[in-house]
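A further point concerns the way the authors explain their paired sequence and structure data. Nothing conveys this as quickly as seeing an actual entry. An entry of this sort, consisting of the sequence and the corresponding backbone structure tokens, reads as follows:
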Amino acid sequence: MGSANKSNQARKARIEEMRRAEQARERRNRILTIAASVVVVGGLVVGGVVLVRSQSGDGGSETAASDSSAKGKFVTGADGVKTWEGDLARNHVTKAVKYASEPPVGGDHNPVWMNCNGDVYTKEINNTNAVHSLEHGAVWVTYNAKAKKADVDALAAKVKKTPYTLMSPMDDQKDPIMLSAWGHQRTVTGASDPNVDKFFEKFVQGRQTPEPGAACTNGLSQ
């Protein structure tokens, strides 16, 4: 019991340290967000040119999804966690991305992240924004219509009190409840499944995080 308390205290201390680092980065991230907006506007201008060319037979569609930015495959460990073995691109793009899994666990993504400071979304969110949140070390809880309401409510309560997490529905996923982090994913049976806590403990700002301490606020929200 004592070791569990020490582990929880260490985890809380780590998250607090990350949150302080996040606050220090907020000014930089606001600048990046403004820059990203400029890129988006530029993309719209270019897209308009492409659309005109498409209508005249000189170009392709501006809405075509990019090729998959994840090269590799999932390997399932003895603990039930699937780990992506291969390359996960990290380019910022403003178009749709064809991901290798649903939900995705990494790859090219939108320059703006989804807010992931314990944010619970009741509508589906854009994968490309959520993947950016995973890059920042967030755990993403997703569920479909087969998930029990009691489990959804309990998981939402857990997410709301856990920094660097977010939650949203995803109708197209194969299992009722899934947990995703950058390069890692698993299915759980419900909110009381002990693997929920294990996944959060290991992957919220875990070693897999490409950008530890990066912001989970001042991004995109519904």
Remarks:
- The chain has four helices and seven strands.
